[in-house]
Amino acid sequence: MRRMIWLLATVLAACGSVQDRAGCAASADCPAGEYCAHTADGNVCWPDGQPPAVSDVTVACGTCLRDGTVTVSAVVTDDHDVGAVEASLDLDPARTVPLTLSGGRWTARVPLGAWPFPAFARPVRATVVARDGARNASAPASADSPAVTRLRWQRAVDGVVVALTPPAIMDDGTIVVGGSTGKLYFVSPTGVNAHDPLPVGTGQITAAPAIGQRAIWVGSEDFSIYGVKLDGSGVIPGVSVASDGPIRVSLAVVDQPAEEWAFGASTGGRIAGASTQANTAKTGITNGYTSGPVIGPSGIVFAANANPVAAGLLRSYGFDGAFTDRWGNATPSVGMTVLATPAVDAAGDVLTGSQDGKLVRVDPAGAVISVCDLSGSAVDSIVILSKGDFVVGDITGLLYRFSPGGTPLWTPEPQLGGAVLSPLVIAGSTQAFIVPTKAGSVFALTDAGAEVWHATLGSGAELRTGNLFTPPGQAAGQLLSEAIFSSADGKLYDVIVDGQLDPAAPWPKAFHDRRNTSNAGTRP
Prior knowledge:
- By secondary structure, the chain is mainly beta.
- 3% of the residues lie in helices and 40% in strands.
- A hairpin with a 5-residue loop joins β30 (343-344) and β31 (350-353).
């Protein structure tokens, strides 16, 4: 203390008396380069040319998730008066957050959800700068956090290796996925079992389940479609229909005033329907179906089947409790074997992609328009954007974007390194597409097709078509979703992505919506 008084006296002697200086209540009252000195003769503005010093910067996080919080902390010293301490993150260097003094350290907790994060996993660097009362700035001091990741959780759904279907997601975020064990699995948004798995039927489940308003619908390789209670507690007695072959592709769901129907297309050549009122319906037998059915905006049911002597065909049925074949002998050809579930645009046209790389548009009257060709087979569904553009990948690893008329919009096309599955169309983010591949990787791309990030999940086992859930009640300035991917080796992955499923896109994902209804008339 005596030394400080002596130093102040020395400074006063060198720089003039207290009476020569302007009075102040705080350093903010003084001009830049001066601080408010508290003396026995009053508070005055006094020159200060010595900046503060920042040391021992740390950046810590708990689970280090993309939507988590990092704690930035530092020690700041100054010979007179620390005015303000701020931190910036390398995620957006122009943006700063204030630190406050607590327990001898300056600290701030920074939620990452409202910051850009152009990576799958990476450390976050924080830079701390302090200013004293005279506005002298310290030298910047930086530190890195542990790696922050988008992978919220991963887990095997069973104690045995089980090939999984693409997932469906309930309104509360519960993930519903079928397995080659013949069981339906229910996983909560936190990654733990919502309840025990449910055996359904006597065969493997390879078709993506669909969730209606009154039942969960499951197609089995035992030739049948089953209705399951929405709480997953059991199969609904009497709510099923037997087809004439395995149900291996996705289902479609329509909710009518008195009952809900689910349709499935079998390799035996029938589309069969089951209702929550235990009613059933079947089409006549044709050739085996290679794609799941979809429902257009006017309630028409479409599905593609194989033709052993010509190209694949797109079948069309009206439905009023019974099926009516709309096109008969005029059923249009749509390329060699359509394995991917078709998509339906805002006008009710059906878009298909075939094994020979042909993209075809079929209007509600059955007229066929050849749109364009891919470099290889289309292995998963086309998605349709809000202005009519559509995006699809092929087996060679290329992802394409076309105008409604078929003009290529990305040149060259992004190469994703493995057979490309159906993208998820994202709104509210610079990341416009989340795209899985059969090589086990996930890519985030901009609207122009540029890569933002990518990662290989787990061991790189083949992924299934993804799904997306946006939790409600998020903080202002933060819109994040959970992209859910299942794999051929029985694992589920939850990847945090920016934005939400685009509500303006008429067909923003495979099977249309997060409940997998494959119905153009339901909400995304």
